[in-house]
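Write out the 3D structure for:
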Amino acid sequence: MPAASKLLDKISAEFPHLKWTDYIYIDEGWDHEVIVLDDKIVFRFPSDTEYTKKLKYEIEVLKFIQPKLNVKIPQYNYISTDHTFAGYTIITGQQIFKPRFDNLTIAQRTSIARQLADFLSIIHSQPTDSGVLANLNKSYLGADQANIKASLPKLKLKLDSQEYTIALNILSEIYRLLQKKLPAKFIHNDIYSRHLIWNANNNALGLIDFSDMCLGDPAVDFAELHEYGKDFVEEVYKLYTGTKDATFLDRAWQYQRWIGVDMMTDYFESQKTTFEVAKQTFDRAKQQVI
């Protein structure tokens, strides 16, 4: 596996004291390649210059925010001298994919909802006008919206006429949202099943991959929780102590619908999955209301 060998050589050169007997190479994400050593240390390698620039700042923010949290988040203790890659002790547990979530007990789901609500309440309430969080990028939503529109001709060839009309309506919804004055808080900006880790042994929640964190609408962090169903979103929101407003949950659903379109158009660039897999979120969220 040439790609993995190259990354392992980088780890050896930078951290000659590290020894391992086994590794896993992961290239299924959009922005990073990952090496996991002996199921103990996770090394992340940004795939482009944009995410390489973000890595150093991500490390600083996670170090700042970790003492305030009860959930597990990455703490990078292996940082290359040029900040082009870094590693952290693995957060033990399993990713909370939907089939796994469905098999959890009611008590376990409630514990996840409570811990997630606490996490969101804390990060969304952090001051962002000074200190390390003052350097957060503003929301990428507007730029991503423009990228989607550029891919519409390709998308039109992949959808039937009714689906394409729904996709256009979703983009119009988001355009109208972007014209409004929306809340601007420190958000994770990519909370979904692949980034949520559940350790059933100690009922502990973990969150990973903060590389898309930004200053944005806190409702975005509730969007992809719809993967687990409307009831779960409402349960987390009920426990959430951040600033609420009358349209918060409506916006979360609009963002979920938009993500469905975004994932389809991203397929044309990354092709990390089949179009059918990329379309699954859209299929779940293409209904007009929830």
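The CA atoms of residues 122 and 231 lie 22 Å apart.
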